[in-house]
Amino acid sequence: MITQSEIATEKIRDQIVRGDVAPGTHLQENPLSQQLGMSRTPIRTALSSLAQEGLLEYVAKRGYRVKEFTVNEIVDAYYVRATLEGMACRLVAEKGLDRWTRNKLSKCVEEGEIITAKAAEDDFDGPAWRRMNNTFHRTIVEAAESPFLKRQIDQIVFIPLATLFVVANWGGRVNAENIGRAQVDHINILDALERGESSRAEARMREHLENTARLIRDYYERSQEMDEATEDLSVA
Amino acid sequence: MITQSEIATEKIRDQIVRGDVAPGTHLQENPLSQQLGMSRTPIRTALSSLAQEGLLEYVAKRGYRVKEFTVNEIVDAYYVRATLEGMACRLVAEKGLDRWTRNKLSKCVEEGEIITAKAAEDDFDGPAWRRMNNTFHRTIVEAAESPFLKRQIDQIVFIPLATLFVVANWGGRVNAENIGRAQVDHINILDALERGESSRAEARMREHLENTARLIRDYYERSQEMDEATEDLSVA
DNA sequence: ATAGAGTGATATGTATTCAATATTTAATTT
DNA sequence: AAATTAAATATTGAATACATATCACTCTAT
């Protein structure tokens, strides 16, 4: 059965992740209950859940605010994720790739080849890449068969998601070089998994995600420079 | 300000962690509200929090049960913790040990020497060892200065705590050998941190905790054998 | 005697009401 | 005119009341 609380949780989370409510916004219970057509009770449990997920900040007697993530926090989260998914690779390599997983990962790599080829001709299909990329990573995490590891990764994956929507859209700035490098990473990871080279698989995955973190930091720093530039313009 | 919900959360968590309520127990709202002298409302939010922490299992319209952990789950959790605290060591070694942290860790090692010396003479001070051990690990995690890492480790650390109370008391079975080995691990970890040898520090910490996981598994298997033996006796 | 269906009891989910505290606004004083 | 204080308003925290789903027990039928 689906409860009102669950509905509220998902809807509010969606609003945050999609960026419909700005970071720092004070989420009040009465407006939300009116907006979602339910009483304050399920709203309260939803807000409490989202706070524990890390998407909201709670201050006693003052309610919940949408958490603001600094670049450093996002990069930090990415480094933890890199370590955890590295562990996932290690576990998968140690226990050996089963046929089903191997197949799924191969298909991801194949699709990646097509996407990168098109990207080299300035025709990058962002949504397709993200779908494929998610499948690749989630398949490995699933294959590790470690419930705790999965839980930890799940928690971290959609923390910086809100901010990632910006990066994901990426202002058309995605250059073929970055995508190509990620694709090579995927190929190497799959290769290491197939050969059962656990520490290589771990290291490659870690590197892969740390590279992404660096891209995010670069993107932010550049966009900040741009902001300053436009500020200068507006002043002038 | 301290809310009723927070009081309820802490009290119920305590009951679970201390083993006052058996794993699998169905926690009902009305009895708890009477027991803690408050209405059902704060109880509900407390139960919801504890479920998200992983201490309770939730089934819609059926309420909350105290989570039962299998040996495999506990070992699994320990392996994840081993990876995460390994990462903490790596970060600390990379950025260099500050004086304060180095001092605190040194004191832990010194205290460990005394405790192991006494343990070799069959006079093991369990509580002192656990206090020191907690300080050692927490100090390293703090020194890593990674909020996400800390959060993830905090979550995992007191998940299997309930079960660990059993292991901690350990039936007087703590042999000097195991404690001595853990002490040597601590010494090596501190040495690696001091030298800034990040990958050695990471590997040593990982190994250290994986050893603990193995000890827990051994303990469980032995205690299960003992259970079977006593069963046989009672039958005979 | 056993299995199944139905009814009553019990527990959870939601709404509403009440209370306490924080914030804002207005008024008064310096 | 500005600042401080007090009063009013609004928002969160908790309790109570109400609705709904699950569970257990009983009764009936095979």
Report on this model:
2 copies of one chain form a homodimer. By secondary structure, chain A is mainly alpha-helical. Helix content of chain A is 76%, strand content 4%. Chain A contains 10 helices and 3 strands. In chain A, strands 1-3-2 form a 3-stranded antiparallel beta sheet. In chain A, a hairpin with a 3-residue loop joins strand 2 (56-59) and strand 3. The longest helix of chain A has 38 residues, at 198-235. At the A-B interface, helix 3, helix 4 and helix 7 of A face helix 3, helix 4 and helix 7 of B. Chain A binds a DNA duplex (30 and 30 nucleotides) through helix 3.
Essential attributes:
2 domains; 10 helices; 3 strands; Four Helix Bundle (Hemerythrin (Met), subunit A); mainly alpha; DNA-binding; 236 residues; disordered C terminus; 3-stranded antiparallel beta sheet; Arc Repressor Mutant, subunit A; homodimer
